[in-house]
Amino acid sequence: MAEKPRTLFEKIWDAHIVASEPGAPAILAIDLHLVHEVTSPQAFTGLRERGLKVRKPGQTVATADHSIPTTDPSIPIADELARKQLAQIEANCREFGIPFHGKGSPTRGIVHVIGPELGLTQPGMTIVCGDSHTATHGAFGALAFGIGTSEIEMVLATQTLLQRRPKTFRVEVTGRLQPGVGAKDIILALIARIGIGGGTGHVIEYTGDAIRALSMEERMTVCNMSIEGGARAGLIAPDETTFAYLKGRKFAPHSAAWDEAVAGWRALPSDEGATYDRTIVIDGDKLEPMVTYGTNPGMGVPVTGRIPALTDVEPGARDDLERALAYMGLEAGSSIAGRKLDVVFIGSCTNGRIEDMRAAASVLRGRHVADGLRVLVVPGSQQVKRQAESEGLDEVFRAAGAEWRESGCSMCIAMNGDQLEPGEYGISTSNRNFQGRQGKGGRTFLASPLTAAASAVTGVVTDPRTMAAGSGTASQPSAVEAH
Amino acid sequence: MPEPFVSTTSRVISIPRANIDTDQICPARFLKITDKANLADALFFDWRFTPDGTRREPPSFIDEPHNAGRQILLVGDNFGAGSSREHAPWALRAWGIRAIVSTSFADIFRGNALKNALLPIVVSTERHAALTSLLAANPDAEWTVDLDAQTVSLPGGDSFAFELDPFARTMILAGTDEIGYVLGKLGAIEAWEASHPARVETR
Ligand code: SF4
Questions:
Q1: B203 located within any domain
Q2: Are A450 and A180 spatial neighbours (Cβ–Cβ below 8 Å)?
Q3: Tens of pLDDT along A393-444?
Q4: Which residue of chain B has the CA closest to A197?
Q5: Which of A220, A367, B27, B158 is most buried (CB neighbours < 10 A)?
Q6: Least CA distance to B186: which residue of chain A?
Q7: Is the CB of A412 under 6 A from ligand 1?
Q8: Beta carbon of A228 within 6 Å of any ligand 1 atom
Q9: Within the 33-52 window of chain B, which residues sit less than 8 Å (CB to CB) from chain A?
Q10: Does residue B122 sit within a domain?
Q11: One-letter-per-residue 3-state SS of B91-160
């Protein structure tokens, strides 16, 4: 009899079970552990207290991204706590033999940007990191999820995790995206539909023509925000796009090992007839650019739409909506386009890769940002930064009146001094609009790089489809047209 | 090493909000610490203080004088959404919270809470509504959360049962931790590693 058809998730899960005792969670082997400065210090302390070593330093890699300043790196770090935290990750990595892409390293960057660009992230792997956006790596067909500090210590000590098997959730995005609509709009539309707890207990697999047509960087944007729908992980089956992206990257397999690896990766996609615990279908043809109006990522509407009226939502959600709108200083039932902005942030592990920089530049080229508006463009890694500079994008941003920074998490989490001031409105390409996330009292609209860049020009929330490409050369078409 | 935990009897703090995310429980600027000290002060910080640092009037939930010392939280759906920061359960525990009752918890938060002997107790929507009205009628009632019996006892002799991951329950009751358990299986890990070469080398 033929084997039972399995999903991509099930294949990866089954291949990593070290032991599973009745009643206890499975012991799952971890292929790659990504570490950063903010969630790891207490885990290293725990390890030291137990007198343990890092079991597999060669399957562990660290960087500094969350609390590191994005200003001139030659200026000493003013924030004493951040400085101490950054010194500690460096010391911990040295003590435990973990490779560290730290301050001054040409390969430093946001942990979820550097994993893929270094070729560390590969199909079929289990990948964890003390950061909820670890789902980003699922774009390669890897089972990748965020963990807490106790679990970081567990992985450091044992290179395994205790895990209960999650349920599976297929999200099929059919059709073809319209010009001006991108990966960020897919994921914001999904979360608006299922809500921020809609994926709890599940691993999402994204399928469908609209997903297949996405580049690797766009797939990462989609998977990145799986956690914003409550799902710990989001996966996309590997295909030729995946292999083409990985080939030749520093830590990807080379020569004979490459061919062998690809052969294995080709067996990963879900089998015909595999079943999921839950499935939904999204019509990709009908998607529009999305913007959030509230204080969680599920509170999003098309940029042409209106903020819901209190009567539009279920009675149980009214309090939430009222409180969110009070915090945001917005009126129920009013339109989202045209809202005045103080700050624009383009960056983060959601939209801080080179294609995002190009998309933003395609709009800003030959234009100027609105008067009085502060616009920060923060590349996701030092490699993205150099690539953008080699394409002259930094000049486009500066000429438009935007700031071009060193790489890091920056205003996504506002730990490093890049932040909204109380009451300010910011449009942001990051992933969370929770109260105070981008600075105490700050108010966030989440959107795509195209929408953020178009809004930077006008100073208000703007539909990118109303704005033609900037005055670029023919070889740099606007992403509005290109997609 | 965690202390064993069996049961607690306490009055209850009600925070009738859904989707309380970890940025509310412990704002990101408090994550620059390298230990677990002083996190009680960070708990729900931005709800308690205005952006210029003055305490809000009227005081927010946990700052209400009668809520001091309470160990049980009753909260809305999807508690702990967002960031994976374990600082959220650390802050709750540091302030003194031992059990949280809700209709659901975000996955990562739930796992982090269990590792810190903070009990995420899931109840049905109906039960949640009943508990909310019970509390409104008698805000100073004491509840007993008993992990061994897996029950919550209410005043007047009522009680209800709750489910908890049986493995986590055993760990918390005994005060053992999961790393010790897995280190006890090192043989299985070594055998697995011997037949599964590393997929990547980061050095
Ligand atoms: S960019 Fe934002 S979401 Fe991504 S890792 Fe950094 S802080 Fe987390």
A1: no
A2: yes
A3: 999 999 999 999 999 999 999 988 899 999 999 999 999 999 999 999 999 9
A4: B78
A5: A220
A6: A158
A7: yes
A8: no
A9: 33-36, 46, 51-52
A10: yes
A11: HHHHHCCCEEEECCECHHHHHHHHHCCCEEEECCHHHHHHHHHHHHHCCCCEEEEECCCCEEECHHHCEE
Residue B67 lies in a domain: yes
Nearest to B84 by CA among A411, A43, A157: A43
Q: Which of A148, A157, A251 sits opposite B84 (nearest CB)?
A: A148
Judged by CB atoms closer than 8 Å, whether chains meet at A67 and B23 is answered as no
**Helix and strand numbers, DSSP H then E, in chain B:** 9, 7
Element at B14 (helix H, strand E): strand B7-15
Contact A25 B167 (CB under 8 A): yes
- Asked whether residue B201 is domain-assigned, the answer is no
The domain containing residue B140 runs over which residues? 7-195
Task: Residue B55: give its domain's CATH number.
Answer: 3.20.19.10
Q: Reply yes or no on whether the pLDDT at A266 is more than 70.
A: yes
Ligand 1 atom showing the smallest separation from residue A413 Cα: 7
- Report the SS3 class of residue B17: coil
pLDDT category of residue A316 using cuts at 50, 70 and 90: confident
pLDDT at B1 over 60: no
Count of CB contacts below 8 A, A vs B?
202
Interface check B56 vs A, CB under 8 A: no
Ligand 1 atom nearest residue A412's Cα: 2
pLDDT tens-digit readout, A96-149: 999 999 999 999 999 999 999 999 999 999 999 999 999 999 999 999 999 999
**Residue A469: per-residue pLDDT:** 80
**Which value does ipTM take for this structure?**
0.95
